[in-house]
Amino acid sequence: MNRRHFSKLIGLSAVAAIGSRQFRASQPAPQISITMDDFNYGNAVYQSAAERNKSILGVLQAHSLKAGLFVIGHNAESDEGQRLLTEWSRASHLIGNHTYSHWNLNAPSTTLPAYTEDILRAEAVLKDVKGFQKYFRFPMLKEGDTAAKRDGVRSFLDHLNYRIGHVTIDTSDWLISSRLSDRLKEQPRADQKPFRDYYLAHMWDRAQYYNSLGRTLLGRPVKHTILVHYNLLNGLFLDDLIKMFQSKGWQWIDAEEAFSDPVFSAKPKVLPAGESILWALAKANGKLDSSLKYPAEDGDVVAREMKKLGL
Questions:
Q1: 45 with 263: CB under 8 angstroms?
Q2: Are 195 and 235 within 8 A, CB to CB?
C-alpha cells in the first residue's frame, strides 16, 4: 500500500506531510511489538518444528523482546505441542487464546454459541500454561458479519475478563511463507534471499501505511502490534525483520506494553467487524472509501507481484 493509494483511501491531504515528518528527530520513535498467530508447528518444511521454535525464540531472546503468541488450542494438545509451548512459557512470553478450531466468525455457518464454546475449549487447554493471559485474538481478524455475532462475542469476552489482542499492522506474511515453503519443497537449495527481500519490503510498506493511518486518526503515535505467523518465513527471517525496523528508527517494545495503548479498548461499530483496529476505527469514522478492499485481503496482488518476480 503506497502513500498515493493511502491518500486516496482516506482522502486527507495531510498524509504526505505526516509521512515526511514521522521520522524526524523531533518526533518520538514509532513503537512496535511482535504478535505471532497460530502456533502451527505441523506444517514444518526445511526447518523441523523444534528448529523453528528454537530459531524464533532465540531471535526474541537476542533482542530482549517478549512477544505475544496467540495459540490455536488444538495445536497445543499433543505432547509435541506442549513441549514447544513450554519453551515459550520458560522465556516468559505472553500466551493468548486464538480459539480451539480457528473458525472464521464472519462465515454464515459459524454460530455465536459454537464460537463462544470454542473459545472456552481453547482456554481449557491453555489455562494452566505458564504465561497464559486472558488476551483473545479473532482468527483471521474476523469479528462478526452481523451485529448479533459482533456484540455477542464482545459481551462474552467482557464477561470472562478477556481483552482483545488487536492487530494494528496487518500483513500477508502467511502468503509469502506459503510460496517460500512450496519453492523449498520443490527445490531445497533454492535461493531464499529474494523471498527475504520481498518479505521485508512488504512489511515495511504495511507498517508505513498503518502508522500514518494511526497518526491521522488519533493525532498521536500508536504502540503498534504487527501481525506475524508461526511459520517458516519467521523461522528464517525474524531477525532480519527486527533489525530492519531498528535501522529505520523504530523502537521495539514488549507485546504487553503495546497492549497498554488505549486504542486496544476501542469497539468500533462496523460491519463486517474486525481487521486492523486502526482500519476499523477509520471505517467507523467515515474516513474510508467503502469500495476499496482491506489491504491484507489483497492476497491476489501479493501473489501476482511474487509471481512476476519469479517467487
A1: no
A2: no
Averaged over 186-205, what is the pLDDT? 97
Q: What is the pTM of this model?
A: 0.91
Q: CA–CA separation, 186 vs 83, rounded Å?
A: 30
- Our measurement of the distance from residue 227's CA atom to the centroid of its chain's CA atoms, rounded to an integer in Å, reads 2
Lowest mean pLDDT among 8-22, 82-96, 151-165, 295-309: 8-22
Torsion angle in degrees (nearest 10) through CA of 239, 245, 167, 110: -50
Q: How far, in Å, CA of 30 to CA of 261, rounded? A: 13
Superfamily for 28-308? Glycoside hydrolase/deacetylase (3.20.20.370)
CA separation for the pair 241, 234 (Å, rounded): 9
C-alpha 180/C-alpha 47 separation (Å) is 12
Residue 37 φ/ψ, nearest 5 degrees: -105, 155
Q: Is the pLDDT of residue 19 over 50?
A: no
Contact between residue 280 and residue 268 where contact means Cβ atoms under 8 Å apart: yes
Give the three-state DSSP class for 113.
helix
Q: What pLDDT score was predicted for residue 299?
A: 76
CA dihedral of residues 243, 247, 252, 258 (deg, nearest 10): -120
User: What are residue 125's phi and psi, to 5 degrees?
Assistant: -75, -35
Residue with cell 498524509: 15
Distance CA 159, CA 279 (A): 26
Whether the pLDDT of residue 219 is over 60: the answer is: yes
For the chain, the domains span: 28-308
Q: Taking the CB of residue 25, how many other CB atoms lie within 10 A of it?
A: 7
Determine the residue type at 59: V
Predicted local confidence at residue 289, as pLDDT: 64
